[in-house]
Amino acid sequence: MLRQRSRQPEWMDDPEAAGFDTALAELALINRLSLAARPVLGFLDRVAARQGGRPLSILDVGAGGGDLLARIAVWAQQRRIAVELTGLDVSPWAARHAMARGVPAKWITADAFAVEGSYDVVLCSLFAHHLDDAALARFLVWLEARSRVGWLISDLHRHWLPWGFIWGAFRLLRLHPMVVHDSTVSIARGFTRADWRRLLAEAQVEAQLRWAFPFRWQVSVVR
Ligand SMILES: C[S@@+](CC[C@H](N)C(=O)[O-])C[C@H]1O[C@@H](n2cnc3c(N)ncnc32)[C@H](O)[C@@H]1O
After folding, report:
1. Which of 22, 57, 106, 213 is the most buried (most CB within 10 A)?
2. Distance 84 CA to ligand 1 centre (A)
3. Is 64 in the pocket of ligand 1 (CB under 6 A)?
4. Tell me: the pLDDT tens digits for 141-177?
5. CA-nearest residue, atom 4 of ligand 1
């Protein structure tokens, strides 16, 4: 069943979907429990070491409710690194959610591919699986063009173990129907190592590929 990337749509693919706001709140909790920020902050440590603590502009693509940006703001404060944070998401619910929670970032409500200009660092966590293979190859090229210092994709490993665990656990916890539906679809739309090797080759992009606990792939470039 999980042999190939699924093309099944997620409810969240509709930027105006009812329940989006609640789903973002539950996603922030899931991110915390699944240590989603850890590989991203580890990547930023690598960037900061290479940059010698210089100021960084950071774009988070598919930023959702901005909880990752809020964690990055704390990371930067602790390391005394000046950062200019920007969240980008196609759903207007994302900007509303982040503003209501005081996430210290500028916000762009747009499709990722419509955004121009460049940032020191471009990140995305749990965004890449929203794209089909053809769009992903374009997105890898887009990341190269939009980032001056480096970029990171952190996304789900397509594997029966997290799929089965999430299928049971999220129903048991009675999470929002959008989260229950989209969680297993997201894993089915996730990636194996072979997928990333193929996509990088198609896009002719060289990047580092790492597995991160629990069941994530990190694809990154630090220049
Ligand atoms: C699964 S959520 C992840 C949110 C956040 N990064 C996190 O880790 O909690 C994916 C987000 O990507 C956004 N998204 C999907 N397609 C997009 C696109 N083409 N351009 C910008 N944002 C998009 C969705 O609106 C959604 O907020």
Report:
1. 57
2. 20
3. yes
4. 999 999 999 999 999 999 999 999 999 999 999 999 9
5. 64
